[in-house]
Amino acid sequence: MSKGEIVLGCLAPHPPHVVYAENPEQNEAFAEGGWETLRWGYHRLARKLKNIDYDAMVIFTPHWQTYIGTHFLGLPKFKSKSVDPVFPNLFRYNYDISVDVDLAEEMRSAAAEAGIITKMMRNPDFRVDYGTITSCHMLNPEWDKPIVTISSNRNAHYYSAEVMNEQAGALGEACAKAIENSGKKVVLISSHSLSHRHFVTESPLPEDMSREHIYNHSQYVWDMKLVELMREGKMREVIDIIPEFTEQTIAETEAGGLTWMMAAMGFPEFSAEIYGYQSVIGTGNLIAAWDPNSKTREIVL
Amino acid sequence: MDEEPEILFGIYCPPHPQPLLSPDENSGYRKLRDSFELCKSRIEESGADIILVYSTTWPSIVGHQIQAHPNPTWTHVDDDFHYLGSMPYSFKIDTEFANKYMECCKERGLHSRTVSYDGFPIDTGSIVALKLLNPENKIPACIVSSNMYANRAETIVLGKAARDAIKSQKKKAVVVVVSSLSNRMFTEHIDPSEDRIHSAKDDEWNKKILEFFGDGRLEDISQLSRDIHNQIRVSKVVAYKPAWWLAATMGQHNNYDGEVLAYEALHGSGGAVIMLTPSKGSVGDKEFDEDDVEYYHGDREVLSKEII
Ligand SMILES: [Fe+2]
User: Fold this and answer.
1) Averaged pLDDT, A63-80
2) Which of A148, A235, A241, B182 is surrounded by the fewest CB atoms within 10 Å?
3) Chain A, window 223-282: residues with a beta carbon less than 8 angstroms from a chain B beta carbon
């Protein structure tokens, strides 16, 4: 068996607004559009993925929050409806998801061997979180590849952003080892916004783009600092400043997703592909990808 | 003087699913379960016509969300404790009350909305509370979220709006807060029979708070919220808000008969079932340092263009 590998890493924010604005048949709500900068960026990245040979998507989500270790989806099928607890007016999505349980088990074992507390989730009534569904839908609307969802252990709440960074990094290294041993080609997805201060009111028409802007300029400047470092291929530096960035911008990086993905990919020193940046209800959302194959790596934006 | 709303009593109870799903795995879980059941009987005997729940495990962002689906029905699974089993539920919600509560919030300057969607994910804490306190849906209920960004002023006004709604609908209400005391859990899986409060510090603080509850000093606990947050709450949210809401809803005083029915560990966190019944006479109030607030005026525009 040849060695498995990570064929692409994606930063894929999951405001349910982008799925809402797409009007897929799975979602009950209807939109007149909105957030095109993000959606068109997603479309472009989804097209790139069509040309990449891969077996599964592994996604780290902030909306499956666990305090007792890191949990992995552990049943082959999940079919239900996901209703966003914060934006139920926008997101009521009927899903039918396949899980690569073997890969989940392998990552779980590797993580446990590395001393990380782990648990397989095998309750068939469990609802898959809307972060997983939004990011995966936007990257692969056909849902023709199995996924594995990894929960986010909330070390940042219990200890500090620094501890979160260390532990998410260790989890990333363990997952990379498991992927290598699995012989599979895997796309990693880190599902989150950058700066994450929301408006606490919503306009009567949520997709009214005349109302959409970043919460404040400080958030924007921080987000742009990260984008600049990503373009320069300085991912080690990005991860080093993640605790400060997270604290300053209440960033959704607090869940550890970006650190997990960058550690799994060995902290890339090549440029990230930038697909779009836009605010959603005040938060800063960046779509980016890290392509380890220099022949297919592009300058997108 | 205005007539006061009729609030029969308040209940403070923990959000963790063990008392519902695995009460016999630890004698403490059983004691919590028994105390929930005692509260259930008292609710049934009280003649209450609404149970209003404020749940710390239902975070909201867009204002304050109020459950208004007349019969929310689903099977819920907890993010951490999924291996303990599923929680099927079917609740009877007082939609008219939910709408009134939303209006009362708006009248006091709060952004608020009702939610009424099939499959809306009701949170673990609300489910545990309603399934144990009102298992046969004998009394209609309503649930209000805890806004992530709300701090003291907003939460107190949210409580006062609940009071307005109860008064205007002439309801006899039981109000329920779903919250841990200390909320640090063990970060590893434990043998439930060996459950204990995470640290001596958490245990001491919990006992101090319970002393106040036992004396009926709810307003004093509300005033101590910031200290409690700093000392024994992990920083998931900006503040320890449930005492603010409960005190504001129940009238901002210390005149209650307090009964601590159980205090036990739930995977390391402090879980207590407490009843507070309005009474005459008060234990001397503490000196209150923060202003009372009647209306919410939104974020202070401290960096507004005019100033710059
Ligand atoms: Fe999110």
Assistant:
1) 97
2) A241
3) 281
Residue A184 pLDDT grade (very low, low, confident, very high; cuts 50, 70, 90) = very high
Pick the CATH number of A5-290 from 3.90.920.10, 3.40.830.10, 3.40.710.10, 3.30.70.3040: 3.40.830.10
Phi, psi (5° rounding) for residue A147?
Answer: -125, 165
Total-model pTM: 0.95
Contact: A67, B187; criterion CB under 8 Å: yes
Contacts of B50 (CB under 8 A, 6+ apart): B94, B97, B139, B140, B141, B142, B166, B169, B171, B172, B173, B174
Give domain limits for chain A: 5-290
pLDDT for residue B236: 78
B123-182 residues touching A, CB cutoff 8 A? 123, 147, 149
Confidence label for B304 from pLDDT (cuts 50, 70 and 90): low
Task: From chain B, pick out residues whose CB is under 8 angstroms from the CB of A151.
Answer: 79
- Beta-ladder partners of B276: B10, B258
Residue A160 to chain B, least CA–CA distance (Å): 10
Q: To the nearest whole percent, how much of chain A has pLDDT over 70?
A: 100
Decide if pLDDT at B1 tops 50. Answer: no
pLDDT at B3: 80
CATH assignment of B6-304? Answer: 3.40.830.10
A211 touches chain B (CB under 8 A): no
Whether residue A120 contacts residue A104, with contact meaning beta carbons closer than 8 Å, is answered with: yes
Closest CA relative to residue A193, chosen from A272, A254, A116? A254
CA distance A161 to A129: 23
Mean pLDDT of A31-55: 98
pLDDT at residue B26, as a whole number: 97
The reply to whether residue A85 touches residue B58, judged by beta carbons under 8 angstroms, is yes
Intra-chain end-to-end CA distance of chain B, in Å: 45
Complex confidence, ipTM:
0.95
pLDDT digits (tens, 9 = 90+) for A235-249: 999 999 999 999 999
In angstroms, rounded to a whole number, what is the distance separating the alpha carbons of residues B43 and B51?
9
